[in-house]
Amino acid sequence: MKNKPVRMLSLTHGAIFLLLAVWVLTILFYRKQWLESRNEQIPVFMAAPVKPDQVKSSLPTHQHPSKEAVELDFLKNTINWPSTPPLPLNFSWKDSSDPRHSTFTVLPKRGGGQWHVGDELEVVIKMYNFHGKPKKYGGDFLLARLHSPSLQAGVAGKVVDHLNGSYSALFPLLWEGNVQVQVILVHSSEAVTVLQQLNRMQPYRIYFRSLFRSGSLTETTTCNVYINATQEQLCNYTDLHTGEQWFCYKPKKLSCDARVTHAMGGFRKNIKRQEEMLFQRGINMKVSIPPSNHPNISVLPRVEDQTRGIGDIVRTEPSGYYYGGAWRPLDGTKVHQFNSSTAVSQCLRGKVLHLFGDSTIRQWFEYLIASFPDLKNFDLHNSKQAGPFVALDYPNNILVTYRCHGPPLHFANVPVTQLRYIANELDHIDGGPNTVVVIGVWAHFGSLPVDVYIRRLQNIRKAVMRLLSRAPRTLVVIRTANPKALTVDVALTNSDWYSIQRDKLLRAVFKGLNVHLVDAWEMVLAHHLPHDLHPKPPIIKNMIDFLQSYICPLPTDQTRVNH
Ligand SMILES: *[C@@H]1O[C@H](CO)[C@@H](O)[C@H](O)[C@H]1NC(C)=O
Ligand SMILES: *[C@@H]1O[C@H](CO)[C@@H](O)[C@H](O)[C@H]1NC(C)=O
Ligand SMILES: *[C@@H]1O[C@H](CO)[C@@H](O)[C@H](O)[C@H]1NC(C)=O
Ligand SMILES: *[C@@H]1O[C@H](CO)[C@@H](O)[C@H](O)[C@H]1NC(C)=O
Ligand SMILES: *[C@@H]1O[C@H](CO)[C@@H](O)[C@H](O)[C@H]1NC(C)=O
Ligand SMILES: *[C@@H]1O[C@H](CO)[C@@H](O)[C@H](O)[C@H]1NC(C)=O
């Protein structure tokens, strides 16, 4: 009898607990449904083909997905592109965006009056097709810049897609004088549909070859990140340290160990005629959109006594701008000019610079040895394309090296002995206050599923974190992607549309790390020279000045740079 109230109490507790539990579960259930329905609204276009390792990871499992796998999903969501309708069967390229029928209009200053430094300029872009009909949906790939040719000044704009055939481009006004707006249609939304589809359906359209040799016997087979064949048909060159995958068809007579070279094999172009017409240079690819009027935008000096706070300026946040042909970062970094060999020797004295990456990083090596005769290339008799290269300045004890990244490298005839993953190379660097590591990896990943690129960056990041943890004063600099000149074949494998997404991923993966970005994207976009995979020397000079400003800041800059 005595324990009855206790039982009553526990029953009441139990009931309350049950009610609470049901309530919590209900909320969780609806929240999950809500989240799922939200996710459904976000179309994921860059869906990778089903690869064996992905099938495994998507099966129900009791293990928690790895941190990298969770990040992979998150990163893929950050590069969603606005929905572009599929092309109908009877599609004609004349139904797609026509830059010459399209126009942009500079909006008057909000609140009226004249333009001043510190204001934000907005232009509205309206897209039309080749029949002069307005476009009703978004997804066109536009780039914009604001510039003053006589001042050699320029800044990249920010393009906002209103998803109804109209777009805005926003520019901060950073200098005085007359300024002009340039808006470029890189690809119509219809062309974007094709590029999306190609990466979904034909991600392995660039293929590779390896030569196998033993004695006088040679064979060549096809290689790629993924090959749809049985394990018995393949040589598996997956890197045990990083897990980076690579496969070749097994040679008939030779063993997998007999692989001696790696090279790009070619590109399988499999696209309809009308689709190909969406990539016509000078007609609908990389063409300027004309202004509707010819505005004379004259920017007056900053007005100091305005009520507007400094924070109001920036809906756009460019990383820097050109003035007098020199790049001025907006993050507070002071860029100094290193024009003479003496200035460079002084800055780099006692330093080791390791450059890793594709040909856009090799350019830095080439620029350094061409511009500064004291830094002498030591001929290792390696391929001009792949290196590796070494340059020395003996009196000043300066060492500069270049090494290309691993597969899917597009270069020709790289000896397998020199085919290394950057992450593994970084693990062999001591690091320290006299070591500078420069990394540039982007141009060879455009046609592959983004997963491949993300995993590569995650591996490099892990190695960078190990390096910075054992030698925190190592300077790590990362060069981003940049827009380039496009032909139809370049567009289908390596378009700026692929690059801009990889560029976003690169920035996201290295965000928060103690590494410095050289914003090649904006440095090429804002410059008056044409877009180029390999930007011309005036742009490279700005990049190298930027790099050296990090290596040897003036005493007044030191507080900021020495974290
Ligand atoms: C394509 O077919 C649709 C429906 O059959 C038609 O409405 C449209 O006008 C056609 N377009 C062209 C370019 O022939
Ligand atoms: C498109 O959307 C923008 C932003 O919502 C709006 O200002 C504009 O009027 C729209 N244009 C058309 C043609 O509907
Ligand atoms: C792999 O090839 C087989 C037969 O050749 C085919 O049925 C299958 O769909 C292919 N799988 C993928 C992922 O391409
Ligand atoms: C390739 O080798 C790696 C490492 O040994 C292994 O994990 C993977 O399952 C292999 N893949 C195939 C398709 O054989
Ligand atoms: C633009 O306006 C400025 C002064 O407002 C004037 O000096 C300049 O000549 C004008 N330029 C053109 C092309 O009209
Ligand atoms: C470096 O050269 C540029 C252009 O050649 C020049 O404008 C600049 O003043 C020079 N800077 C120094 C520090 O010599």
TrEMBL record:
<dbReference type="Pfam" id="PF24536">
    <property type="entry name" value="NXPE4_C"/>
</dbReference>
<keyword id="KW-1133">Transmembrane helix</keyword>
<dbReference type="InterPro" id="IPR026845">
    <property type="entry name" value="NXPH/NXPE"/>
</dbReference>
<feature type="transmembrane region" description="Helical">
    <location>
        <begin position="12"/>
        <end position="30"/>
    </location>
</feature>
<dbReference type="GO" id="GO:0007399">
    <property type="term" value="P:nervous system development"/>
</dbReference>
<dbReference type="Pfam" id="PF06312">
    <property type="entry name" value="Neurexophilin"/>
</dbReference>
<comment type="similarity">
    <text>Belongs to the NXPE family.</text>
</comment>
<dbReference type="InterPro" id="IPR057106">
    <property type="entry name" value="NXPE4_C"/>
</dbReference>
<feature type="domain" description="NXPE C-terminal">
    <location>
        <begin position="327"/>
        <end position="552"/>
    </location>
</feature>
<protein>
    <submittedName>
        <fullName>Neurexophilin and PC-esterase domain family member 3</fullName>
    </submittedName>
</protein>
<keyword id="KW-0472">Membrane</keyword>
<keyword id="KW-0812">Transmembrane</keyword>
<dbReference type="InterPro" id="IPR014756">
    <property type="entry name" value="Ig_E-set"/>
</dbReference>
